[in-house]
Write a structure and sequence with these properties.
heterodimer, A: 223 residues, mainly alpha, 9 helices, 79% helix, flat, B: 247 residues, six-stranded mixed beta sheet, four-stranded antiparallel beta sheet
Chain lengths: 223, 247
Amino acid sequence: MGLGPSIIDVFLEYWPIFLKGAIGTLRFSFIAVFFGSILGCLVSFLRLSKIKVLETVSSVYVTVLRGTPLLVQMYIAYFFLPIAFPIMNNLSKVTYVLIALILNSSAYVSEIIRGGINSVDKGQTEAARSLGMTAKNTMIRIVLPQAIKNILPALANEYIAMIKETSMAGTFMLYELMYTRVLLANKFLIWQPLFIIAGIYLVMTTVLTYGVRMLERRLSVSD
Amino acid sequence: MIEVGDVLIETKDLRKSFGDLEVLKGINEVIRKGEVVAVIGASGGGKSTFLRCLNMLEEPTGGQVIFEGNILDAKSTNLNLHRQKIGMVFQQFNVFPHLTVLDNITITPILEKKVKKEDAEKEAYELLRRIGMEDKANEYPRKLSGGQKQRLAIVRAMAMHPDIMLFDEPTSALDPEMVKEVLEVIRELTRSGMTCVIVTHEMGFAREIADRVLFIDGGIIVEEGTPEEVFEHPKNERTKEFLSKVL
């Protein structure tokens, strides 16, 4: 009983599979965070609104999605959505998992945006309103441009976190990096792919983390 | 048209509570066009809250604020429109850090009064010239000193052509050497006939420029009168005690 082929041998032979998996991971993560951001924006505005009902609803939404495991949310999306909403029956299986990822991401993004908006000094809003600026213009022209500086790096970090989270999507046969394990297990390669996968995740998150740090430095220059 | 001497802003039994804490306990005050009113008093006495109620930055919990005949705390009132005519200058300057000096001044006239960009900028340059900052027009506020930021905040409010200017401790956050240049701009403003309400700890300045002084303590106007009456011959014990500490 040997260990079988080395990690390097496996990588050299099957690198296109890993590459496709890595691209899948980056793509699914991007889709999740991109649409999660749009949805998260709406949720954060509801949460910051002064209308009590909307505030409560969005607060519950965020609490539930952040307080339950993503894997459970994926299972619910995968098995429950097609039964509950027959219209969605025709959608591909990928879509259900993506919906779970997007909703999950939207909860985190809404907190990022809320935090970014709250980080802007209250005096800025007061100054704008005292000049007679409307609430809408104050938000769009005064608060958000200043909040974006805090929001952008946090959003990038959310993307990095999502790269790791999407590994769970492989459970549902989504072609992302973790799914390559299943493909190679069919060829009786069990342990080598795991180290290769871990290495690729590490490279992706490290490079992106470095990129975020550069971004933060550039944004803080304008202070 | 409002003439000099007409009532510009009036409060009737103005009250404000934060939770259980009643900060304003019924203030009745009339401010007339062209008046310069200095508001003095110890910290926590309610003088800043009083000022902030005048443009509804603090929503009163009781009573009325009537500006140019309009009840500001009525639901039907278009507050934004009236706020355009009530300029405010803050202790912490609150200039917009993401906008150039020029844009700080022009953004609200362009957005809310639909002033043409060229006209707004022409006027902004004129205002900057008056405070000796025209060379800073394209700088961002981070390059400005505290005194320059506060002068910018003053002309930013002026660009809306307000009928009254409110100053909330405009020199309290400044380094001592910059107090003078800001007070000079305010002095100019009062000389031009602008109605001003100034919450300040600068007793000398209050005495010099004010037509009337209000001493607010414990949420009420304890004493009011000309600077001479209040500073030289205070009648109330609390006024005397306060003045003996600060003069």
